[in-house]
Amino acid sequence: QVQLVESGGGLVQAGGSLRLSCAASGRTFSSYAMAWFRQAPGEERGFVAAINWGGGTTDYADSVKGRFTISRDNAKNMLYLQMNSLKPEDTAVYYCAARYSPINNPTSDPAWYNRWGQGTQVTVSS
């Protein structure tokens, strides 16, 4: 099973950009569907973006479409989230998530994923 470690969070002004990374251990990363979720204080964990095992299928929350891009590099066991045009409402702890799924496409339901990273804080100032 993969283990996940996020990095790349920080403090940025509104309109700025950040790139989050998620490093995965294990030899079968390329068979995992991956996703990013986020959780702001007092709120439930919400879907941000997902990508299938090969990178050919992606999905985004409406709130981030056109601003965020999810990608993966299976040769490096890495997942990324490029975040542009950041807004204060993007402030949250961002988590990467995984589920072994070499056939099915990922979902936006956090309960479908069974591997989680520890999270990285993103703070967007106005």
* Strand segment count: 11
Radius of gyration over C-alpha positions, nearest whole angstrom:
13 Å
Global outline = globular
Helix/strand/pairing category: mainly beta
Low-confidence stretches: none
**Helical residue percent band:** under 10%
Note the gap between the termini: 40 Å
Q: SSE order, as H and E?
A: EEEEEEEEEEE
The fraction of residues assigned to DSSP E strands is: over 45%
Major sheet characteristics: 7 strands, mixed
Count helical runs.
0
Structure write-up:
This protein is an all-beta fold and 126 residues long. It has no helices and eleven strands. The protein has strands spanning 4-7, 10-13, 18-24, 32-39, 46-51, 58-60, 68-73, 78-83, 92-100, 115-116, 120-125. Strands 2, 4, 5, 6, 9, 10 and 11 form a seven-stranded mixed sheet that branches. Strand 4 and strand 5 form a beta hairpin. The chain starts with a strand and ends with a strand. The mean pLDDT is 96.
Using brief descriptors, characterize the structure shown.
7-stranded mixed beta sheet; 11 strands; 126 residues
SSE arrangement:
Elements: E1 4-7, E2 10-13, E3 18-24, E4 32-39, E5 46-51, E6 58-60, E7 68-73, E8 78-83, E9 92-100, E10 115-116, E11 120-125
Parallel strand pairs: 2-11
Antiparallel strand pairs: 1-3, 3-8, 4-5, 4-9, 5-6, 7-8, 9-10, 9-11
Could you give a short description of this structure?
The chain has no helices and eleven strands.
